[in-house]
Every structure is written in structure tokens, then in C-alpha cells.
Amino acid sequence: MSKANLPKYVKWRDGRPRWELGGEGGKKLRKAGWSSLDLKDARGDWLSFEGARIAGERLNLALTSWRRGDETPDKDSLMQLISDVPGAAALVSEDLKDWQPDQSRATGPQSWTFNQLFDRYEASDEFRALSKTSQATYSGRLRVLRYWLGPDKLSSMRPSLSLRLFNRLLDVGYLRHQWVGTENAMSLHKGYHDAVIRMSGADRDALRNDRLEFMEDDDDAALEPPGYNTSFGTMATARSCWNWATRHHDLTLVNPFARLNLATPSGRIRFVEEAEFRHIIATADAIGRPHVGDAAVLGRETVQRRGDLVRISWSIRQRGDWSLTQSKTRKPVAARCTRILTERLDLAWRRECGKTVTPDPNGPILNIPAKQLTHEWRLVVNEAAKTMPSLTGVMLHDMRDTGFTRLLLAGNDLVRACQVSGHSIKHASTIERHYLACRRQLADQAVDKLDAFSEQG
Length: 457
Fold this sequence. Notes:
- It is a single chain.
- By secondary structure, the chain is mostly helical.
- It is built from 22 helices and five strands.
- The protein has helices at 23-31, 49-67, 75-83, 88-92, 114-122, 125-128, 132-149, 159-179, 189-197, 201-217, 219-223, 228-249, 274-286, 290-302, 306-309, 315-319, 339-353, 370-385, 397-409, 414-421, 428-434, 440-455; strands at residues 10-13, 16-19, 37-38, 321-325, 332-336.
- Helix 2 runs antiparallel to helix 3 (75-83), helix 5 (114-122) packs antiparallel against helix 7 and helix 13 runs antiparallel to helix 14 (290-302).
- The longest helix is centred in the middle third of the chain and has 22 residues, at 228-249.
- It is globular.
- 32% of the residues are buried.
- The model is unreliable at 86-91 and 93-103 (pLDDT under 50).
């Protein structure tokens, strides 16, 4: 595990983690009554890497609350935050009175803890074969699972507890939804998990009742409550890890995350209309971020993901076609540049050549990291939404959805459209659910073809 994944102030020295308030900032904190702390559990043993991460985030959350006006906590309270890292059994099954922790002397993978399972999975060839984006997504979900399940044995888990965990995650999603934009909002996502964990049973029941009432009053929330997609994805990752251990390490325990009958999220469907598309580009150009307009055109006209867009080079302008191997699927895709793309590339090239440094003809068109591009995209869309409110929340990935839908609107069948986008025909139903925005034009085109067929006798 990378030390870079540890929270601020947490130092890891040969297995001895410490929350260390060093430097000028730490000096001010020490003067205010704070102190550096060894990160040990209740027995006095040094915390694991993951335990140190959790403890560090808790301490930093307490520090954030103090900066907002709370009193400085005493050392005993801080030490309690460090040593009190509850296990999954107590957290997700407190109202399952028939639950008993597993006392058997299981061997092999049957004796693993969840932390051991997740460590092995993240070190596996199967995990390393995923794209960098998918790895980051899985690692984020595994951090949540470690937080709730980490030290517990695989043999202590069962489907009823998995469902209980899923509902706890929904509680976290609802709490975050309620607190965003308020003085209670937290900078650390883990803080919301910790807030739910540390609630009394009565407070947690009240939160659950509030969530259910909210769902009754909101039709969209009734179908997919706040945090549903994230919770569903987290459970799917747990199921995948368990299945991996079954395939590669002969784990014989029944997968408690399988067949939970959870409704599959509907997926995001957003077709960006032509007027909206042009308004995004115009806004990007007007506020001095034309590369965001370039990204909008590249995304829609090539039907590729953000991570691949930032790899496309200026050479396509001269060649008149583009080609790449997709970072997520490893699939090669290629197509001719559309007229709209060619026109934007010519405009962007003239713009770049007008700068002090002439661009590299073989360098990237979007000379910006993918995460920074997402940040600047949001800035542009937020500005554009001030004069066209329908653009609120539009994402760069929506350009891919829109581009795929346009290919079908143009009369292409699914096979031809997938040749451009890189989707697998085997997953046509997934494509329709996640990428094909429902358009009346498609239905009308189908009826036109039916009329033509009927006229032929």
C-alpha cells in the first residue's frame, strides 16, 4: 500500500503509525492544546495500515470540528477515537439478536479477515489488469468496505448481515445528501460513515425513518434514494472480491453478497441537445477555457471516454482520422474525423499557434490531466447553466452518451455504432440501458422504414 494514501498528519515508520503534528502548522496546534499521538489499539498494539488510515481520518475530523468552533477535545477522547475501531458484527447486526461471532478454527481462505481478502485482491493480476480508472473506483469502494468489515472474519458474514450493511450505506448516503451545503457538511467522505457508526441506536432509527419519509415524498428518490448507486456498487465490489477468492484460492464459503435481490440502478441517461452543446462551447470560449469546448466536441464526435480523450493527439488533424486502444477495455477503435470535429480542430490549432509556444504536432490536443479537465468542465457548465438552466449537472461523459445516440439517430445499426464507440455487441442490453437516451426520433425512423416496407407490397 502506498503511504501517499494516508491522511494528513499520519506518518508510517516501519509499521509504527503516528499522528504527528509537525511543522509550523503543528506548532500552532500544539500551542492550542493538541498533541501528537501514537496510533495503537486498545491492547497497545500498533494499528494496521488501514487502521491507521481510519484513526487518522477520525482525528482529522475532530480537528476540523475544533476549527469550526468546537472545544479542544481532551487526550483521552482522542485516544478513544484511535482505539475504538468497531468491527462489522457490532455495526451491522446490533439488532440481529441471534447473531453470534464465528468461533470455528477455519483454515486457509476460510480463516481470512476482510482486510486480508481485499489486500490479496488488490495485489492480484485480475485487479492489475483493470484500467487505472476502474482500479481507482474499486479501491475507493474497498476503502469503505474495510472501514465497516476490515478486521472481521469472512466466516462471520452472511446474507442478512450484507443486507444490513447495504441499509447502513444508504443511511450514509442520505446523511450526506442532507448535510451537503450546510455547516455540518464534511470534507472527508469517511466522516459520514463515522457519523452513522457513532450514532446511538435511537438516532440511527430516526435517520432511517427520515430517509423512508423522504422517499415517500419524492418519486425519484423512491426509485433510487440518495447514495443508492454508490451503495450498490460497493456491494457489487464485495461480491466480486469474494468470487475472485472462490476462483483462485478455493474459498468454499457461500458468497453472502450474492443474490441479495437488489434493484440494478437505472444508469445515467442524458442526451445533450444541439442548442445545449453549442452553448457549452460558446461559454467555454467566452470565459477563456476553450479547451473545454474542444473536449465537448472530441467527446461527442469520437464517442470516447474522458481518459481516452486526453490521449488523442494533434496528428489526427493531418490524417483526417483517429485511432486508439481504449484504456478501459483494451479494445482498438478507429474512425474518420467528422466534419464538425475537423472544423473544431482547425480552429483549435490556429488558436494554439497564436500562443508563444507552437504546439507539438504529435502532442495531445487536450494538454491537461483528466481530473483537471473534469474540474474545469464543471466550472464551464456551472457558468453556462446560469443562462441555460437545463445544463445544470451535465457531465463530460454525457458527450459520449450523446455521441452514441446520434450515431443511431443517423440511421446506423448497433453493430456500426459499436465499431465507433468500442462497446461489445455481447452487452447490447447494457448499452441500451446506459448509453441510449430514449428518443422519439428513433421510433419515428423505425415507423418510416416500416411504411416503406409496406408500400413495397
